[in-house]
Amino acid sequence: MKNFFLLPAILFIMSCGETPKIEEGDLVCECIIKSVQIKESISTIEPEPMYIYQTNCNTVLNTKNSDIYHVGDTITYVYKKR
């Protein structure tokens, strides 16, 4: 029974390792937020609005919190090599 609880604890601790780092060969793309749109919800189940951020790289980010990103913030995308 002790081993039953020990195994998940060990797996959890092992998964708390280093965060991924930018390595040689990775593609790094820095995009700047250029506009924000607020889409009001029409649903009574999810009443909070959706914030839609457009970047100069033609990517779109969606969040439900208004204080995460602002116009002019830089978003860095790292595409890992295979």
Could you provide a short overview of the structure?
This protein is an alpha+beta fold. The protein is built from 1 helix and 4 strands, in the order H-E-E-E-E. It starts with a helix and ends with a strand.
If you had to describe this structure to a student in words, what would you say it looks like?
By secondary structure, the chain is an alpha+beta fold. It has one domain. It contains 1 helix and 4 strands; from the N terminus they run H-E-E-E-E. It has one helix spanning 2-15, and strands at residues 27-39, 50-55, 60-63, 74-79. The protein has a 4-stranded antiparallel sheet, with no helix packed on it. The longest helix is centred in the N-terminal third of the chain and has 14 residues, at 2-15. The mean pLDDT is 83.
Main structural class: alpha+beta
Radius of gyration using CA atoms only: 20 Å
- Which geometry do the CA atoms define? flat
The first-to-last residue Cα distance is: 40 Å
Would you tell me the overall average pLDDT?
A: 83
Provide the spatial order of strands within the biggest beta sheet.
3-2-1-4
Q: What kind of sheet is the major sheet? A: 4 strands, antiparallel
Features:
alpha+beta, 4 strands, flat
List the helices and strands and how they pair.
Blueprint: H1 2-15, E1 27-39, E2 50-55, E3 60-63, E4 74-79
Antiparallel strand pairs: 1-2, 1-4, 2-3
